[in-house]
Amino acid sequence: MKTKIFKDYEELSTNTANEILAVVQSNPMAMLCLASGDTPRLAYMLAAKRAKEGNIDFSRCTFVALDEWMGIPPANEGSCQFFLRRYLFDPLNIPERNINFFNAVSSDPDEECKKMNDVIARKGGIDLMIVGIGMNGHIGFNEPGQAFDQYAHVVDLDETSRTVAQKYFRESTQLSKGLTLGLRHMLEAKKVLLIASGLKKAEIIEKTMGEEISPKIPSTSIRNHPNGYVMLDKEAASLLSAKSM
Fold this sequence. Notes:
Layout: E1 2-6, H1 9-26, E2 31-34, H2 38-53, E3 62-65, E4 67-69, H3 80-89, E5 99-100, H4 109-122, E6 128-131, E7 153-156, H5 159-164, E8 177-180, H6 183-188, E9 192-196, H7 202-210, E10 228-233
Parallel strand pairs: 1-10, 2-3, 2-6, 3-5, 6-9, 9-10
Antiparallel strand pairs: 4-8, 7-8
C-alpha cells in the first residue's frame, strides 16, 4: 500500500480521474467497481468529460456497484445507482448490459449478493476499485466488526452510517440495511484507490493508517493490499505523521 497526498480536493479528483482513464486505456474491457458519494463525484465528472474530449472508449468496460441502500429504489436521488448514472454512466452512454447494480428492492437480497459475486468471478475479478471511507471506517457498507474474508453480503447499517447518509436524501429516510461487496472483493481487486477529502476525515484516516489492522476499523484492511493506494488531500492527511505514511 502507498499513500499519495494532494494539495486540495480538485487535485485529488484530477488524479483519481487520471487513474480511471489510464486503466480503461490500458484495458478497454476492464471491470471497474465505483463508490458513490461526495468524495468521488468530481473525479467521475472529470473522467467523463475527458473521456468524451479524448475519445476514450468505455463501452466495453464492465461496471459493478460497490453498495446500495436496501429498500431504496433506483429512481430515488439518494440511491447509489442514481448517483452513478447521473455523474458517470449517463454522460458516457454506458450500455445497460455493462452495468451491474444490486436490486435493492428485491425480495431475495441474498440472491442479489450471489449474482454480484458471480458477475465478478466470471469476469476474472475487479481491475480497479474506488472506495471512500466512512466516519467509522466503513468501506462500502462493511461496518465495524465485518470480517475481511466476506464477499457480497447484506449488512445491518451502523448508527453512524444511517445518520450521515441522510445528507443524500431530500427528506428523512428510514435506513436499516444495505447490500455491499465484501472486503474480500477489495483485497482481491487488482488495484484499489481509497480516497478521502477534508478535515472531517482526518481523524479516521489517522486511525486507518496508524492503528492495528482489524475489523474494528474496516478501512485498516487497505494496508494489506499490495497494490492499494490511499489518496488524500492535505486536509484529510493533516493528522498523519511521517511514520504512519
